[in-house]
């Protein structure tokens, strides 16, 4: 058992809390049995090593038995695990996994060929919780891919990974492309690019026109600044969510979830 937080393997894993270490190694951390379970179910080849406490072994024997078929299991003390984990109260399991981003062109092509073509393009999204929640919502709405453009938060940061609750193992994630390249790739593949913006047309009107039923790439902007005029001009149409109550606005993740689901509903209504 690795007991000391200063043990070389513990320190090496803990370094993955930092973006520089994730970028140089191509690895990332995922915490908790739920996220590990999704990795084992859907992308077991990405797993490298699982750090586990005695208490977690007792609580999750079946999960850890399956994980051991794909990755090295390393016993650690509670204090050693705390040094690796990003959370204040870790759940006894932290895994190291390989990042598996998909090339922009491949992600868009697969989405365009799917039964319900739906993609989210994220322009300079900076909040980890927002990014993780959008990835989860995109997965739930049946989107095939999420494009995390340059100058956005790291898609493999611990807080992002936690917020996805495992959805990053279900859909294609492309990272690092410029927003222009992402939009052009979507358009070239036959997707209609819709920008979510307060200056846009009422989403209900676009739904009535049948716009949302088309193969679609939604373009979502920065939490504070939204989409600048140049980026907004890249889209075919812009849509705004109507506010019927007294709320000043919706946060990015909530707005993105609504937009993606409205497209999912409209596409499936064509059956």
Automatic annotation (TrEMBL):
Record InterPro entries: Alpha/beta_knot_MTases, MRM3-like_sub_bind, Ribosomal_eL30-like_sf, rRNA_Methyltransferase, SpoU_MeTrfase, SpoU_subst-bd, tRNA_m1G_MTases_N
Q: Which domain of life is it from?
A: Bacteria
The keyword Lyase appears for this protein: no
Ranges for domain RNA 2-O ribose methyltransferase substrate binding: 29-103
Gene Ontology annotations of biological process type: methylation
Query: Is Zinc tagged as a keyword?
Result: no
Which Gene3D superfamilies does the entry mention?
A: 3.30.1330.30, 3.40.1280.10
- UniProt xrefs under PANTHER family: RRNA METHYLTRANSFERASE 3, RRNA METHYLTRANSFERASE 3, MITOCHONDRIAL
Name of the featured protein: RNA methyltransferase
Q: Which organism is it from?
A: Agrococcus citreus
């Amino acid at each position: 058992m690795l007991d000391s937080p200063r043990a070389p393997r513990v320190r090496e894993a803990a370094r993955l809390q930092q973006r520089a270490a994730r970028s140089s190694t191509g690895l990332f951390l995922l915490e908790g049995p739920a996220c590990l379970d999704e990795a084992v179910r859907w992308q077991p080849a990405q797993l490298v090593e699982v750090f586990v406490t005695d208490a977690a072994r007792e609580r999750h024997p079946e999960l850890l038995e399956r994980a051991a078929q794909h990755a090295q299991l390393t016993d650690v003390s509670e204090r050693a695990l705390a040094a690796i984990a990003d959370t204040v109260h870790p759940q006894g399991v932290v895994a190291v996994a390989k990042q598996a981003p998909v090339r922009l062109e491949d992600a868009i092509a697969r989405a365009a060929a799917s039964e319900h073509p739906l993609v989210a393009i994220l322009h300079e999204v900076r909040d980890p919780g927002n990014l993780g929640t959008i990835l989860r919502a995109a997965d739930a709405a049946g989107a095939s891919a999420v494009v995390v453009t340059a100058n956005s938060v790291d898609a493999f940061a611990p807080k992002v990974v936690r917020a996805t609750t495992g959805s990053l193992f279900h859909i294609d994630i492309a990272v690092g492309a410029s927003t222009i390249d992402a939009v052009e790739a979507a358009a070239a593949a036959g997707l209609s690019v819709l920008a979510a913006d307060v200056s846009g047309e009422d989403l209900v009107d676009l739904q009535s026109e049948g716009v949302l039923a088309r193969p679609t790439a939604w373009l979502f902007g920065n939490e504070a600044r939204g989409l600048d005029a140049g980026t907004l001009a890249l889209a075919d149409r812009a849509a705004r969510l109507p506010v019927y109550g007294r709320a000043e606005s919706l946060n990015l993740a909530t707005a993105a979830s609504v937009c993606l689901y409205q497209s999912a509903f409209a596409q499936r209504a064509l059956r």
